Amino acid sequence: SIFMGSEHTALNIVLDFENAQPKSDQEKKIHADIAAYLDSSETILKEIGEFTGCDDKIRAAITTPGAETEQAAWDAIVPSVDKLKNFYDFSVDLEKVLPQLLTELFSGNQACTNLEGQQALAKQLADILDFVLRFDDAKMINPAIQNDFSYYRRSLNKHKNKSDV
């Protein structure tokens, strides 16, 4: 493991997340890049936690198929899927900057030194992991997210010629 000493003994790494500040210009640049994404993470978590979905409209369109119920479900689902796309776009953007952070922290055989010396970046890694776990938890406990997207995918062919797709 990268955290084991030469005799395979565990190393103690002291991290002070409360006072962690970027020091070098390289660390400041990476920190600023990551911070730009992390600033939005609480908003994303709030939005996904408040996501209600379109269960009633979808259920009506499935149990009572017809042009009116299907259009009502579609009209409700498009803004819902726009929100889901924003969540997806955020994760793709975060995925683009994460390798930069990981490379800086874990390059070479100096992971322990890097973590102790670049504590602001180590804190950001912890913040990203915290966000990912909370995001996945929120996504897993809200079936409306998957239901809305599944209905959207099933209905897409019927509505693909419309301007709101």
List the helices and strands and how they pair.
Layout: H1 25-38, H2 41-49, H3 55-63, H4 67-106, H5 111-117, H6 119-140, H7 143-159
Helix pairs in contact: 1-4, 1-6, 2-4, 2-6, 3-4, 4-7
Structure in words:
This protein is an all-alpha fold and 165 residues long. The chain contains seven helices and no strands. The protein has helices at 25-38, 41-49, 55-63, 67-106, 111-117, 119-140, 143-159. Helix 1 (25-38) runs parallel beside helix 6 and helix 2 runs parallel beside helix 6. The longest helix has 40 residues, at 67-106. It is elongated and about 65 Å long. The protein starts with 24 loop residues before the first helix and ends in a 6-residue tail after the last helix. The mean pLDDT is 87.
